Amino acid sequence: MALTLLAGPVAAAPTWSSPTLGFHAFGTLGAVRSDQDDADVVSNVYMQPNGAGHTRRWDFGLDSKLGGQVDADFRNGWSAVLQGVTKHRYDNSWTPEIEWANVKYQLTPALSIRGGRTVAPTFMLSDTANVGYANPWVRGPQELYSLVPITHLDGVDLAWNILLGPATNVLQASFGANTFDAIDGLEISGRGAWILSNTLEYSFVTLRVGYLRVDLTFESDQLAALTGGLAGLGNTLTESGFPVAGQRAVALAGRYDVDDTPIEIFSAGLRLSPGNWLLLAEGARTTHAGLIPKTQAGYVTGGYRLGRLQPYVTWATLDSETHRPSSVPPSGLPAPLAAAVNAANGGLAAALWAAAPSQNSIALGLRWDVLDGTAVKVEYQHIDLENGSPGRFGNVQPGFRPGGNADLFSFSVDFVL
């Protein structure tokens, strides 16, 4: 796609030489075991329908992936990149997907612009989220990195590199949109997305702050049934002579719908790598958006390199501000209407519960760079769910006990070529 876009400019400038092409490949072969019987550990609750735990004790698709990237340098400031990745998807397939496909023009030595499909730089390591070898863990802490299902944008971005004495500062602005399918027939759309980030690097210190704003839409039969059912119930109650209860039902339908609903995410990250030490820390806060509550998340990772070995420990947390109980008062209603109201209240309570994950986890891991470009990682993780919370588990079964815990054992082989 990117090379096709560039075909016109190349033809219009015959003095340009043929592009210099480069190819890179990366991948992960992973295995995960979970002792949770009534839910699955997944890498993203929106994008993987099952994983390790209930569906299968050992799962090989949670972290496994294969990717390839073609870079084209057309000189005179023009370049392009095309990246495709195959991994376990929402529909249980492994269909490859284009992650990046963009054209870049270097306006000045400090300022560049890209157009097309680019990474959504929401967090510090969003650029390398799919490249396991580039990251210290088996997988990024899901408490933070699962906050935003949008991994790329179709649009434009600007990057401005500024030298501040011995330090380098990169200011990046991205604008675009994305629409994609997720599990259980859910379609997620992000329109009018703005991502602003600033990264300052000095010696062994990297400091990053970011801001994201996007109009989010969730389209699914379940959500439509919930909000449409509440709105219809409200009209029925009003027509039956119960306007107060009817207005309440209609108001709840509008309050919890996710239809071009604005959401904001504020994030900050710090990386320290003096000598053989490594410290990574990130945190983020999201605003309320319909069914999605306000959420705070973060993690801290510490590691130390001993030759080709790097043991590490990660503590992570996710805290959703659970919605206050919301319901339509059934008192004083005739039995048929009261039964309909109680059913609607039950469905709303279940949806609010599922949308408010809270958990803490600690992980102990070891990375072994067995060869140049190849790393083997093993990791043990203990997850504690907050009382009444489903946490970040997927494929939750009727017998699932909120507020429980789980122990995971993960093994992966990461490579880059």
Summary of the model, kept short:
The protein has 417 residues and is of the alpha+beta class.
Overall pLDDT level: 91
| Number of E strands | 19
How far is the first residue's CA from the last residue's CA?
Answer: 23 Å
Number of domains: 1
- Helix content range of the residues, please? 10-25%
Order of helices and strands: HEEEEEEEEHEEEEHHEEEEHEEE
How big is the Rg?
24 Å
**CATH architecture type:** Beta Barrel
How large is the count of helical segments? 5
Stated plainly, the CATH topology is called Porin
| 3D shape | globular
Explain this structure.
The chain has 417 residues and is of the alpha+beta class. Helix 3 packs antiparallel against helix 4 (243-256). 16% of the residues lie in helices and 48% in strands. Mean pLDDT is 91; it is low at 1-15. A 16-stranded antiparallel beta barrel has the order 1-5-6-7-8-9-10-11-12-13-14-15-16-17-18-19. Strands 2-3 form a two-stranded antiparallel sheet. The protein has a single domain (31-67, 112-416), classed as Porin (Beta Barrel). The chain is built from 5 helices and 19 strands. The chain has helices at residues 2-12, 142-145, 221-239, 243-256, 335-354; strands at 20-34, 40-41, 52-53, 58-59, 65-75, 78-87, 97-106, 111-119, 152-164, 167-181, 187-202, 205-219, 261-272, 277-286, 295-304, 309-320, 359-371, 374-385, 405-416. A hairpin with a 4-residue loop joins strand 13 and strand 14.
